[in-house]
From TrEMBL, chains A, B:
One of its GO terms (molecular function) is hydrolase activity. One of its GO terms (biological process) is carbohydrate metabolic process. Keywords: Hydrolase. It comes from Bifidobacterium vespertilionis. This is Glycoside hydrolase family 127 protein. The lineage of its organism: Bacteria, Bacillati, Actinomycetota, Actinomycetes, Bifidobacteriales. Residues 14-459 form the Non-reducing end beta-L-arabinofuranosidase-like GH127 catalytic domain. The keyword Cytoplasm does not apply. SUPFAM superfamilies: Six-hairpin glycosidases (SSF48208). Residues 593-715 form the Non-reducing end beta-L-arabinofuranosidase-like GH127 C-terminal domain.
Length: 716, 716
């Protein structure tokens, strides 16, 4: 590994994403999702499943108070299993001293506080901060003296804590608590929750580890791995990195810990959970360095791979990075929807086998696309390669955003690429596919996950190291980076980019340098050349000196007039030189409409194409095109193979904010092919078709105009 | 209804199906299936799930003997629910006094004895008859004094008999017992089992009926309806017809009996089975005369519709026949696979919504295709319309036969139209789809169902009434029919047809008349003009007088020279006149290859075609064509829209008996479209294809050469 290529996200205080695209999304999160979610955490949303999240923390506090009062008289609860999702017998009168909800319900709070933390960075809000501080007080008061903090076991009986790692979620709760605590600390400077998370992490580090008297287990649902690396980075405490590495190194090794757990339960005739466990479901079927195919629960997988990349970077572990690259290749070459979604099957919410990417029965969980963005960003932090950025962008602009309605009030868990509402209503086989977004889920992972990634999108747009500022996503706004090691000959110096971007709707983006008092500032600024703009010539100008092309040879020395050297590496354009105030770097990326075909091993998509333009994947909806979308076939005679015949129009009035629509020339099977009396089967004859135009909208905007058909793939 | 058009199957003693196609299948049943099945009934098949069928009958006999010995001391078992499929704790030592297996396990015997009965008609076999008599002795000894005969309740407790009609299967057991008993009586003249079936039916008729003190329930799993009509016809006892009509008239009326059962159980807090019941699953959601869409469990549905048609004919009930026609139209126009299969979804083994006919996730149970053949034959018995015969033929020659391996030793329950073995192995969503036939099933409905329909195929080929002999299927062999009412001016007279047939492999069939001593015999012989031969000109000759065409005008009077009048009605050619010995009716049906497209509402099949020739539907297998069948596209430039470019070849060596293979010119996507490194998505470009030939085999012969891909639908 080449450590000089490593980079890290920039502190969100130093990033302001202000372009209309992302600002709108962030404002939705701030004004709709975060307040709504707080109500949900407190079971005050009419018609939605109660979360019981704050209820559980309060119950744990009450229990602790009783313990304090009763002292040695206090009888701690002896563990009893009450189900993976325990509900009160009388929903109107939950017992104030009992745990309810899913075993991982604590994380509702952690995900909320994480989004709150990011939001407060750019949008101080004393009232929100007051509410958050109050919640943190309750959460911290629930923590046991030894640092343990998962109300599921605190309330149900600590005697079985850490006894069911494969199904229960204590380490998952730890991971989310760390992520939330760090975000809130970053957003407010307040470290009360961070200290609580550290204490929990310290306790976990005492229980798990390589010493003979330590447990050799690891998380059933991953996330602690990447969270611990982040905690290491936030605190500088090496033990958290060691624990993350331990979890990763231990995973899937023999004797298999999850098998051991099941065998122990079988021996003890302990029947709360199954004795057998599907190891690939939790990526525990072999040591992670030997895994070459992405398998199992897709969110778990994405979180694991992210943690692996984190540890690989922090420990400069080539074998671990190799494993990350193998898994990346398998996902991108075999298991990735063109919407940036992953995890094709609802069976285990999992990756299906290679090339199995069904459209109408797709799972493609919102959180799985988010986990892919996590993974991609971490791969970028190791090496800036445009492919990582392309996939991250594809996930973010399509499936991640599709997870949330345009009014921020309803959410998709599942993101199909084809919907026939009749099938959703009548076909139990696709009971998981909903034609409209749902208000909230009892298992509410996706809404807060969208909230936290949208609020922190600046961390995905920009990373930096001592010499280079990387622009991965062309977000409009500003970003400041500091360069230099501070050692002799390499003074610390700061540089700010401020710019505007048309992306995703147009191809122009322009950044102006602010070098401040230290100008000129010597630095490298590296810009991702998006895959969607290649191989057409990219137009770049630096302070007026302009050049077209993408190859290194075309760019080398091109900016001599501006005093910059240019290099292209792995799809990034590195501009190095002394930067002065007011210098402008402008891009004009070609953003043509492209009709994409899938590898014909994807049986579902043979003879079909999907339309993309820039980072946006498009789809056809019944609202624009009527029913029976399967009747339409792309008319290449009019569209041209270069898709120059496809209309591109900016519209402002469909959803109340600007988007780009496509108008695709199609041939539509004539209605007389549908005469009901005709019966089912007729002798083949060339189709009778009529020329028509098919309106395509961005995939992330689908299902905002009532129930109707939708399809991403269109007959070719 | 026009009663003069009614007809009935001909006694199997008067039919001999000897053509090589059907004779081979019947011999398989006789030599393989029936002996194997007897071993299975007695739990003597190594590696197969035990049936426990004869075990249960013997246990019931033992119990009855105990009762006889103990007299009033005998304590009858009080009902306890032991599950829908009760298995012994120690499989090696089942308790000889307990019931095991599915609640409907008695029917294994009834289905077996039915096949035995048919088989003995044409192939007397004293040893088999001895075994069967022995089994009948045991079964009859198990019958209660009141006539009740279902070992499930006899052994588990009669106090809950007839208390769970929606899920348990007493009336289903009654139906199969009747069918088996009649077949054995027909085959051997022995009526011991028939008398037992009558006694059970008498008891059921005392429990269920319109009187105020009778139960208003009806079968959860239909079959008793058609069986009771058959019992009425066999015995002349009107009460059986009345009971059948009662079951049909009562079904789905308000207050709904199945809802009542559930509510009663809820009231009594009786928790063995769900209180709620999916009424459409059992076609009990509305009165049968108001049902216009085929819904629910497809076998149940097909059996119900068959019973409805029987009762409609026997009672000349137009409203009931209208309902049958509505349901028929819905199946044939919306819910029928091109393989003659029905019931597209494994969820409830049921009809899916209109036009939902998935290929790779298909259910298409063998028994459902059999039930469709039942229904079609009964529709033919009301009115001879070629459409009914076409569908019956399509079901029989494709899905029904596909249910059994060519060696008669393994069976499909599920009949997909597309198989990717990797998906079968890895995708739990299609866990029901097997790429190879299974040895036997615990729930062994399909193998014996195939056995009984193949053994009695003569009943599907020919029906007759007082004036007309109908030839529905062109089976080679002989059939005798009696004409005349026996009243003055209409003497009873007999006529025999003896003939040969190339169908399904060729289009020629020829029948010679044997009129015997009464010659010439005045009669009408009606021949189905198969839909697959229309609109090409059918060539018909009667005693040398030959004509081509299918319209009435083309045929009327054409056979004057032979002294016959000709009429075409609903796709049947009626030849009327005085028939003498040696007169020959010969057909030359065009049997072209046809490429069929589906109605484009069948989303799965858009842009695809399936190949049929005569009654046979074809498919492509990996064994002939390599993997990746999805890469092939029909090359219409070479095949021609008339499919004259498709090769038709008779081969004898592939499966050891003659079949016809097709050779279809295709264009195959070049392998370089599959370069693994290419990734998943590429810009669309016209496909690079290579000309190739795709070998198609009859669908019913698939999966007899190991595991591989298969597809019926091919890209067009």
């Amino acid at each position: 590994m080449d450590k000089s290529r490593f980079s890290r996200p920039i502190d969100l205080h130093d990033v302001a994403v202000t372009d209309e695209f992302w600002h709108r999304e962030q404002e939705l999160v701030r004004t709709e999702v975060i307040p709504y979610q707080w109500e949900a955490l407190n079971d005050r949303v009419e018609g939605a499943d109660p979360s019981y999240c704050m209820h559980n923390f309060k119950a744990a506090v009450r229990q602790k108070e009783r313990e304090g009062e009763q002292g040695k008289q206090f009888e701690a609860p002896a563990y009893s299993y009450r189900g993976f999702n325990a509900l009160p017998e009388d929903p109107k009168h939950p017992d104030p001293d009992k745990f309810y909800g899913f075993v991982f319900q604590d994380t509702d709070f952690s995900k909320w506080i994480e989004a709150v933390g990011y939001s407060l960075v750019n949008h101080p809000d004393p009232e929100l901060e007051r509410i958050a501080d109050g919640a943190i007080d309750i959460v911290c008061a629930a923590q046991l003296d030894n640092g343990y903090l998962d109300t599921y076991y605190i309330l149900n009986g600590m005697d079985r804590a850490f006894h069911c790692l494969r199904w229960h979620h204590e380490l998952y709760c730890l991971g989310h608590l760390i992520e939330g605590a760090i975000a809130y600390w970053q957003g407010t400077g307040k470290d009360k929750l961070l200290k609580a998370a550290e204490r929990f992490a310290d306790y976990v580090a005492s229980v798990f580890g390589p010493e003979p008297d330590q447990c050799k287990g690891y998380p059933g649902h991953e996330i602690a791995e990447m969270a611990l690396v982040r905690l290491y980075e936030a605190t500088g405490k090496d033990k958290y990195l060691k624990l993350a590495k331990f979890f990763i190194d231990e995973r899937g090794t023999e004797p298999n810990y999850f098998d051991y757990e099941g065998e122990r339960d079988r021996r003890d005739n302990y029947k709360d959970t199954n004795w057998t466990f599907d190891l690939p479901y939790a990526q525990a079927h072999k040591p992670v360095r030997e895994q070459r195919e992405a398998v199992g629960h897709a969110v778990r997988a994405g979180y694991l791979y992210s943690g692996m990349a984190d540890v690989a970077r922090e420990t400069a572990d080539d074998t671990l990075y190799d494993a990350c690259r193998n898994l990346w290749r398998n996902i991108v070459d075999r298991k990735l929807y063109i919407t940036g979604g992953i995890g094709g099957t609802h069976e285990g919410e999992a990756f299906s086998y290679n090339y199995d990417l069904p459209n109408d029965t797709a799972y493609s969980e919102t959180c799985a696309a988010i986990s892919l963005a996590f993974f991609a960003r971490r791969m970028l932090e190791i090496e800036a390669k445009s492919e990582y950025g392309d996939v991250m962008e594809q996930a973010l602009y399509n499936t991640v955003l599709a997870g949330m309605a345009l009014d921020g009030k309803s959410f998709f868990y599942v993101n199909p690429l084809e919907v026939n509402p009749e099938a959703c209503a009548k076909d139990k086989r696709i009971g998981h596919v909903k034609p409209v977004r749902q208000k909230w889920f009892g298992c509410a992972c996706c809404p807060p996950n969208i909230a936290r990634i949208v609020s922190s999108v600046g961390e995905y747009a920009f990373t930096a190291n001592d010499s280079t500022l990387f622009v991965h996503l062309y977000a409009g706004g500003s970003v400041s980076a500091s360069f230099g090691t501070g050692e002799a000959g390499d003074d610390r110096r700061q540089l700010t980019l401020e710019g505007t971007s048309e992306i995703p709707w147009g191809g122009k983006a322009s950044y102006t340098v602010h070098a401040g008092a230290q100008a000129p500032v010597h630095a490298t600024i590296a810009f991702r050349i998006p895959g969607w703009s290649v191989p057409s010539g990219v137009k770049v100008s630096v302070d007026g000196a302009s050049v077209s092309g993408v190859a290194a040879a075309e760019l080398a020395g091109a900016f001599g007039a501006a005093g910059k050297s240019a290099e292209v590496r792995d799809g990034y354009l590195y501009l190095t030189g002394d930067w002065s105030d007011g210098e402008t770097i402008a891009f004009d990326f070609p953003i043509p409409v492209r009709a994409k075909r899938a590898n014909p091993q994807v049986r579902e998509d043979v003879d079909k194409v999907a339309f993309v333009r820039g980072p946006i994947t498009f789809c056809a909806e019944q609202a624009d095109n009527g029913a029976d979308l399967q009747l339409n076939r792309v008319d290449f005679a009019r569209a041209g193979y270069d898709m120059k015949g496809v209309g591109v129009r900016r519209v402002d009035d469909v959803f109340g904010f600007p988007i780009v629509e496509l108008s695709v020339p199609v041939l539509r099977l004539a209605d007389d092919g549908l005469t009901p009396g005709e019966g089912l089967y007729a002798d083949y004859a060339p189709a009778v078709e009529k020329a028509a135009e098919l309106t395509l909208i961005p995939y992330f905007t689908w299902a905002n105009r009532g129930v109707g058909e939708m399809t991403v793939w269109i007959r070719a």
